[in-house]
Amino acid sequence: MTSTVLHIDSSARSESSVTRSLSAEITQKLGAARVIRRDLSAPLPLLDEAWVGANFTPADQRTEDQKALLALSDSLIAELKEADTIVIGAPIYNFSVPSTLKAWIDLVARVGVTFQYSETGPKGLLEGKRAIIAVASGGTQAGSDVDFATTYLRHVLGFIGITEVELVAADLLAVDAEGSMAKAKSAIEALAA
């Protein structure tokens, strides 16, 4: 049984969001003892020169201002570390992820914290976790040559050590909404809790 789920939603929509509905269903199916909720509809700050400078300053040498700049990132990473399973609601916007989800990724992918470099290349530090991505699109088929959302998410999650990534796709909603939703619901039913 999953003990802690980090449930992330990134759709700009609220009531009519397919990914919010699917990610909620997935989270409920997992029956976690604890759910950490992160709604990215309120935009996160983008990285800037001051943040990058703080990030690359050794932790024991950071000023109070630098620590404050990294506080949100530290909090987001703590949520990731606490979770056994990460459920991400990710609509495909213009072939990729919403900008709010990209901002979250920028804040959690930190060298020495969630990944490190070695002689053999980068190594993720958040191993032993599972991720389930609930994706929706109007006309982009998940896994196709023009799907830069799910391929990117699989890659970046693997980069930080989360290699067990499952996809629940309600893709091509503008082509066949009923069939697309039926396929996604079937994928949720097939998920192991």
Strand-helix topology:
Elements (H helix, E strand, L loop, with lengths): L3 E6 L8 H13 L3 E6 L9 H7 L8 H19 L2 E7 L7 H10 L6 E4 L2 E4 L5 E7 L13 H10 L4 E7 L2 H18 L3
Parallel strand pairs: 1-2, 1-3, 3-6, 6-7
Antiparallel strand pairs: 4-5
Helix pairs in contact: 1-6, 2-3
Describe this structure in words.
This protein has 193 residues and is α/β, with parallel strands linked by helices. It has one domain (4-47, 74-190): Flavodoxin domain (Rossmann fold), CATH 3.40.50.360. 40% of the residues lie in helices and 21% in strands. The chain is built from six helices and seven strands, in the order E-H-E-H-H-E-H-E-E-E-H-E-H. The chain has a five-stranded parallel beta sheet, sandwiched between helices. Strand 4 and strand 5 (121-124) form a beta hairpin. The protein is globular. The model has no long low-confidence stretch (mean pLDDT 96).
Task: Give a quick set of tags describing it.
single chain, 193 residues, Rossmann fold, 5-stranded parallel beta sheet, two-stranded antiparallel ribbon
**Fold-level CATH name:** Rossmann fold
Morphology call: globular
Number of domains: 1
What top-tier CATH class fits best? Alpha Beta
CATH architectural group? 3-Layer(aba) Sandwich
The percentage of residues in β strands lies in 15-25%
Compact overview of the structure:
The protein has 193 residues and is of the alpha/beta class. The protein has helices at 18-30, 49-55, 64-82, 99-108, 150-159, 173-190, and strands at residues 4-9, 34-39, 85-91, 115-118, 121-124, 130-136, 164-170.
